[in-house]
Design a protein that fits this description.
Length: about 220
């Protein structure tokens, strides 16, 4: 540990007093003790005034290359089928996630639909509250997003279009992506491609959140 000498007036006075006492006594031993005492006082002051440690660097956003993305906690509930997208930090670097992931659903024929950013889901009992949380992921930690769609035909339709069989997923703010299966073991089906009464897709995704905020 490196110490520094400080110019505290009280320290200088104490040291000068000891030195003068040594001079009056004309004793080499006392002079030596006075110098040593002064050194100890200045060293202690230097130790107490050591600079604080530098602040840690800011944490960057999680990118696709450092994440393992999968789907878990699948099932069907209250007219919806879906699951939780699980984003696990598979790197050695701490990162953060916040906002909506980009999820493109693909049918077996290649038809693609970008999942809407929903404000709530029946499946995950999730409701949006602004601003979206910022989730810090240490290596091995996970964050989640609900993915769900209506599983019943709307209006006069008797059946839904062919389901989505794959999901192309990007974490918030990253243009890279990975493709995973849209199979929902808990629902024994792929993610439904059912539409609303006006023909718009019902599949959507929540913001990034923690597992503790979702039923599981």
């Amino acid at each position: 540990m490196r110490f520094q000498v400080v110019s505290d007036p009280r320290t200088r006075s104490a040291c000068h007093g000891l030195t003068r006492a040594a001079a009056r006594g004309r004793t080499a031993t006392l002079s030596t003790l006075a110098a040593a005492a002064c050194g100890l006082v200045m060293t202690a002051c230097g130790s107490q005034n050591a600079p604080a440690a530098a602040s840690s660097a800011s944490i960057g956003a999680c990118v696709t290359s450092q994440l393992k993305i999968s789907i878990t906690d699948t099932g069907a509930l209250a007219g919806q089928a879906g699951g939780y997208l699980k984003f696990t930090n598979d790197s050695r670097t701490v990162c953060r996630m916040s906002g909506w992931p980009v999820v493109i659903a693909l049918t077996a024929t290649g038809r693609s639909t970008r999942l809407q950013h929903v404000q709530s889901t029946m499946f995950g009992a999730w409701h949006y509250t602004a601003p979206p949380p910022v989730i810090t992921l240490r290596p091995g930690d996970s964050a989640y997003a609900v993915v769900a769609a209506d599983d019943n035909a709307a209006g006069g339709s008797t059946h839904c279009p062919a389901p989505y069989v794959r999901l192309r997923v990007s974490p918030p703010g990253d243009s890279e992506n990975v493709t995973i299966s849209a199979w929902l073991p808990g629902a024994v089906s792929y993610l439904p491609a059912c539409t609303s009464a006006d023909g718009s897709p019902t599949a959507g995704t929540s913001t990034i959140t923690t597992l503790s905020s979702l039923p599981h």
